[in-house]
Amino acid sequence: MNTPTLSPYDRLGGEAGVRRLVERFYALMDELPEAYTVRQIHPESLAGSADSLLKFLSGWFGGPPLYTAEKGHPRLRMRHLPYRVGPVERDEWMLCMRQALAETVDDAPLRAVLEKAFADMADHMVNTTGETCACSAPATSA
């Protein structure tokens, strides 16, 4: 008898687990001075960003496709093109995500898989190189 493989969404504990990850991620973005540059490209309130990320991750992790049901295909790179996303922003984003994963995901093999997937996505989002500046307008929630 084959045991069904649980999706990352289920392994995280469903919506509650994904919500914990997203809430911790954005709390770290606000708390860590090392995340200053990436925080500047987000709106003052992170509520809309958190809602979008929760909905995106739900589907990406194998749960309900909330983001696509509401907004269509994520087109992450296209949606982020108006904002300067360079190596600094990528690295700061990953700093927050790695720490959020470490604090909220007890399953070490799952955490490693998710960290790799997030790192690949973060690399894909880079749309500029070189020094960063604080001249980017704050993002609206995607």
TrEMBL record:
Domain of life: Bacteria
Membrane spanning stretches: none
Family annotation (InterPro entries): GlbO/GLB3-like, Globin-like_sf, Globin/Proto, Hemoglobin_trunc
Gene3D superfamilies registered for this protein in UniProt: Globins
Pfam family of the protein (one): Bac_globin
Keywords carried by this UniProt record: Heme, Iron, Metal-binding, Transport
Gene Ontology MF: a single term: heme binding
Family (UniProt): Belongs to the truncated hemoglobin family. Group II subfamily.
PANTHER family: TWO-ON-TWO HEMOGLOBIN-3
Protein name: Group II truncated hemoglobin
